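Internal tracking record. Fields below are filled automatically when a chain is submitted to the structure queue. Please do not edit lines marked as system-generated. If the sequence contains nonstandard residues, flag them in the REMARKS field before resubmitting.
Queue: standard
Priority: normal
Entity type: single polypeptide chain
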Amino acid sequence: MSITSVPFITLNRFENGFRENFLGGVANLFEKTQFVGGPIVGEMEAELSKVTKAKYAIGCANGTDAIQIALRAVGVEKNDRVLIPDMTFWATFEAVVNVGANPVTVDVHRETCHWDLETFKKAVHEFKPKAAIMVHLYGWASPDTLEIRKFAKDNNVLLIEDGAQCFGTEIKGESILGSALISTTSFYPAKVLGASGDAGAVFTNDEELAKRTRILINHGRTDHYSHGMIGWNSRIGAYESLFLKLSLDHIEARLESRRNAVKYYAEALQGLPFKPVLAASHVKENGYCAVGMVDPALRPALIETLKKANIGFGTIYPGAMSLQSGAVGHLAGKIDNGNAHYISQAVLNLPCFAYITKEELEYVCQTVRNHFKA
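SYSTEM-GENERATED OUTPUT FOLLOWS
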């Protein structure tokens, strides 16, 4: 049967028996009325810790809360300055604002789409921030991640790492999420490790940060009716925890499938105006996104070709944070070299999801090749 369409992402390709195991687990939780909390949460967190190699893994309600919790856990307070990349998802920006701090956007490198050490240094010297959020976009990490971590530590900048898209990503053989001072992730269903609904997590190897994180996600409780901090309700649900625990049994196969898809695109689309972008050689990406860059003037026509061929696509992300209308009145400063804006106009993401088939990949590649031959 020939391929005539490929979705940008699909959430319904699971391993044999996964659906039955999940529904059976749901029935068990239902019978025990374990809807929030319960043993399944601790079991899932233990698996997360094992996979990420982080000493502490704390589940929460969503990835945006996870960033806000991490900011609060390290001690970010009202009016503190926090550096964030100008190329990220809006949640990074709004998390800073929601804890009362002031975001400063810092441009990314045009080739890597992530922070580089020199621009980060410039931002630290110019704005003297309390903290910074390094975002690991597209399932990669900045080639300068380890150097940025060291510079931040040496200059007393508290570095939070937003890993909403980097579960399973490594740098020089080390887990990104497990080796950071404090890191976060999102388990939104479309992620490489998605839940059955909204969910997120915070990771750290620091016992005190882990303790504060657990207090913050549960109304600041230090005991059932004792509250030592102003927290909020960000507990992870039992059903989401069950779904994640079962998914962790298959995470390596899912990541390998995605990585193979990214590699396929890179090899099949060589020499075209559409240029696949890969992680640096010392970064092991997770295959979250198949990323390519094309001259902004050529992108609309390529998008129309994909639409006519019933091929899904993305533009992650279509705008720099500093240029969002919602940033007005909140932005405390910026370093803008024009790179984030350029990337937003040039980026194009091809279909990439766990268990995408070779036939689907070839249909996408043939469509792109034919477009540039015409």
